[in-house]
């Protein structure tokens, strides 16, 4: 009965009469057209069917088939099943639809991006791939079809010609099965074949971490016909009102990345077997650096600020300042290692490396400043031991009787002090004594010839030979003295201004460079 179903094209013009007989029908056909009768005889010659001269024929067919045929006949059209059987009867799936080559139009819809892996430098996404081409061997507009197009299953796809499109640079690709294979096939009356299939594909990404975590990555997928060069199959992007590459949901946002741009391109690539058309999809992903701002940058800011507190503690708090600086250094090192362990080991410097190393340098310099302050404080204490005489120290003389200490023998005096008169209790009449580095005293007329460091001593009180050998001395700076050396407090005051200034300048350069980098 299969041959009978396949030959309904000639039956559609006949006037059928059915006689029921249990499960089957006897279909009696009446016709006065000799051409139709001869065609019936030719088609049914392998069946044991009698054709009387008056044009009467009877054959046994299935009830279900006749029910469908009757509906189609009443509608005056050809059923889908009949069309497919006629199209595939003499169809050759290995033959290219046209001897001059066929144009295959391609369109891609991005359903979702599943993940981006920095370690393996790839991305995973679900896409819908649409292919369109013209196959004149599948035209059925002359068959008076009941439907404008035929929606068919994957089984029919295996019986027709296909361009064998592949993702040539994919790491992995497969058609979804949920629960059956996700392939859609549609054939139009003019022979246009439309195939759509849902694919999960994993493709490579060109990752450059030099601007991490402010970098952008480009991921590409390339499609071409695996079996045919461009002389047989000319691959092109589908030129419609919309773009050949589109998003089904926008925007596409991942925990670490966001899809910022996408584009298509076409390129002719020369192989030993000929020239192939390669259609490339380019996706650009930008990293969402909010997590790194909270986990890396803000903690390092706080650590740097805490390390500057040691400048305000003074030179007497060396243990506390040491603990503060060392803890800041360890905290930065731990944060840096915790972030870097989830990234690939690259041989170039990243933006986060520059930030962390610079912050470590600032903390390390604060420890160097602490070492300098501690060293100067220790030397100061060593130069002024307990019980030593200082300009303001107490003397055996009463405070009310300030005098210069005099030795019994001037020649044995360590500096050879001599009095140039008596002050007589009048402060305005105090005389100046010039003490040179060699220990000799010079008068005012010889001071201009002296190139050594000078100090002036004011003698307070009169010169009484019977007075006790004591005096109260007050140092007065000379205009030609050396600059006062830096103290530990001076270094701390300088550091508390210099460190924030340099760190602020570094921030301006760092953020302006990496945030505006193309």
From TrEMBL:
Residues 297-511 form the Neurotransmitter-gated ion-channel transmembrane domain. Signal peptide: none annotated. SUPFAM superfamilies: Neurotransmitter-gated ion-channel transmembrane pore, Nicotinic receptor ligand binding domain-like. The keyword Ligase does not apply. The chain crosses the membrane at residues 289-311, 323-340, 352-373, 491-513. Keywords: Cell membrane, Ion channel, Ion transport, Membrane, Signal, Transmembrane, Transmembrane helix, Transport. GO terms for molecular function: extracellular ligand-gated monoatomic ion channel activity; transmembrane signaling receptor activity. The keyword Transmembrane helix applies. It is a multi-pass membrane protein. It is found in: Cell membrane; Membrane. This is Neur_chan_LBD domain-containing protein. It comes from Steinernema glaseri.
């Amino acid at each position: 009965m299969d041959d009978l179903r396949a030959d309904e094209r000639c039956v559609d013009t006949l006037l059928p009469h059915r006689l029921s007989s249990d499960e089957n029908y006897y279909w009696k056909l009446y016709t006065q057209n000799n051409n139709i009768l001869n065609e019936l005889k030719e088609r049914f010659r392998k069946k044991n069917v009698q054709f009387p001269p008056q044009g009467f024929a009877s054959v046994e067919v299935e009830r279900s088939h006749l029910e469908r045929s009757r509906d189609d006949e009443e509608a005056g059209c050809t059923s889908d099943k009949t069309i497919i059987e006629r199209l595939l009867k003499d169809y050759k799936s290995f033959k290219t639809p046209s001897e001059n080559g066929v144009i295959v139009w391609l369109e891609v819809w991005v359903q979702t991006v599943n993940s981006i892996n920095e370690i393996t430098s790839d991305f995973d996404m679900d896409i819908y791939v649409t292919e369109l081409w013209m196959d004149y061997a599948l035209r059925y507009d002359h068959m008076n079809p009941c439907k404008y197009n035929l929606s068919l299953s994957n089984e029919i796809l295996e019986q027709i010609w296909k361009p064998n499109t592949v993702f040539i640079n994919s790491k992995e690709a497969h058609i979804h099965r949920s629960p059956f294979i996700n392939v859609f096939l549609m054939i139009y009356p003019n022979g246009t074949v439309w195939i759509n299939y849902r694919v999960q594909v994993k493709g490579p990404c060109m990752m450059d971490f030099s601007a991490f975590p402010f970098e952008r990555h480009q991921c590409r997928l390339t499609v071409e016909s695996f079996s045919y060069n461009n002389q047989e199959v000319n691959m092109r992007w589908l030129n419609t009102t919309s773009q050949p590459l589109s998003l089904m949901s926008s925007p596409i946002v991942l925990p670490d990345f966001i899809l910022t741009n996408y584009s298509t391109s076409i390129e002719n690539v020369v192989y030993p077997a000929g020239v192939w058309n390669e259609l490339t999809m380019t996706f650009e992903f930008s990293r969402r650096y909010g997590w790194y701002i909270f986990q890396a940058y803000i903690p390092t800011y706080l650590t740097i600020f805490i390390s500057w507190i040691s400048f305000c503690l003074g030179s007497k708090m060396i243990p506390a300042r040491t603990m503060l600086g060392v803890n800041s250094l360890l905290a930065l090192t731990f944060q840096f290692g915790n972030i870097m362990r989830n990234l690939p080991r690259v041989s170039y410097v990243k933006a986060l490396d520059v930030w962390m190393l610079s912050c470590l340098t600032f903390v390390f310099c604060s420890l160097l400043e602490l070492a300098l302050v501690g060293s100067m404080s220790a030397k100061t204490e060593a130069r002024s031991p307990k019980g030593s005489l200082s300009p303001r120290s107490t003397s055996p003389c009463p405070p009310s009787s300030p005098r210069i200490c005099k030795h019994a023998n001037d020649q044995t005096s360590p500096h050879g002090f001599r009095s140039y008169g008596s002050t007589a209790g009048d402060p305005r009449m105090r005389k100046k004594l010039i003490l040179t580095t060699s220990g000799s005293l010079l008068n005012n007329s010889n001071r201009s010839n002296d190139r050594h460091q000078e100090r002036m001593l004011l003698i307070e009180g009169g010169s009484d030979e019977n007075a006790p050998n004591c005096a109260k001395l007050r140092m007065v700076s000379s205009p030609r003295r050396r600059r006062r050396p830096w103290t530990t407090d001076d270094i701390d005051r300088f550091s508390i201004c210099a460190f924030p200034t340099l760190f602020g300048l570094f921030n301006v350069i760092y953020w302006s460079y990496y945030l505006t980098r193309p």
